[in-house]
Amino acid sequence: MSVERGAVALSEFPGPFDLQSTVESGQSYLWDRADGLMYDESGAYGGDSWYETVVRVDGEPAVVRVRQVDDRLEWESSVDAAPVLRERLRLDDDLPAIRAVTPDDDVIERAFDAYWGMHLVDDPAFPCLVSFICSAQMRVARIHGMQRELERAFGPTVEFDGRTYHGFPTAEQLAAATEAELRDLGLGYRAPYVRDTARMVADGEAAPEEAVGLDYEDARDSLTRFVGVGDKVADCVLLFALDYLEAVPLDTWIRTTIDEYYPDCDRGNYADTSRAIRAALGGEFAGYAQTYVFHYLR
After folding, report:
1. In which residue ranges of the chain is pLDDT below 50?
2. How many Å separate Cα 246 from the centre of its chain?
């Protein structure tokens, strides 16, 4: 398989972009660092390491490698990676415009200043769903490791530039796994959740993309049909895969942030607290503000 190389000029897009914070901020578990140091440092920002992922182009798996060098993204792939990077890294997002409509709030401003250029990601819905089912009570490095184990055990292999890469398994591939096999990979009590959710998708019973186009809270409810998916996991999928930029996943870190900085937003239940913190973080782009605050305070 031939190796294509190219570069994306970041000056073509609105506002700044920072690759390291975008892929190492706990939004996506589908990327890996070529040097093996993914998530080794907290507050990742500004690095020039190579990152790798396996994507599907016209249904076929393909490797994409990328690094940031000054004002460009250099890439290597077996396909034209420029449109893939544009979509997955949300390069068209206008960060200055998003920041301009975000509340003038001290903790948000400090988070924006610290990691200015971090974008949200736009991951495929099913891998994102599985990743966040695995996220309960787990550090980001451990969640990332689980996804690599799933890829190695069940995903497609791709030969590229003298190496073998593993893509994320399809719903059909995961649906065929046994609970014991998944537990052996370290998923623990999450194993039947992943298997049963994969079976729902593989059998055509439900698809995470069915949430697209629904009003926000209806979209969240749609995703909670999947086994092991509560409101927080649903919000993660809405934000990081389905383009609901107002979503604010209420995980432990954000609840701590609410306790310390936005106590008036704690309404005693998920739905009402979610509405209050979304309003406090700016409404339409509240998910951007929370992702910055999450990375800053974590």
Report:
1. none
2. 15
* One-character DSSP codes across the chain: -PPEEEEEEGGGSSS---HHHHHSSSS-SS-EETTS-TTSSTT--S----EEEEEEETTEEEEEEEEEETTEEEEEESS--HHHHHHHTTTT--HHHHHHTS---HHHHHHHHHTTT-------HHHHHHHHHTTTT--HHHHHHHHHHHHHHHSPEEEETTEEEEPPPPHHHHHTS-HHHHHHTT-GGGHHHHHHHHHHHHTTS--GGGGTTS-HHHHHHHHTTSTT--HHHHHHHHHHTS--TT-----HHHHHHHHHH-GGG--SSHHHHHHHHHHHTTGGGHHHHHHHHHHHH-
Q: What is the pTM of this model?
A: 0.96
Taking phi over 0 as left and psi of -120 to 50 as alpha, with beta for the rest, 285 belongs to alpha
Q: What is the model's pLDDT at position 1?
A: 63
pLDDT at 297: 85
Q: Six-digit token pair at 145? A: 């490791």
Q: How many angstroms separate the CA atoms of 167 and 154, rounded? A: 9
**Hey, what amino acid is at 101?**
V
Residue 60's CB is within 10 A of a number of other CB atoms, namely 12
3-state secondary structure of 97: helix
Q: Which residues pair with 76 in a beta bridge?
A: 5, 65
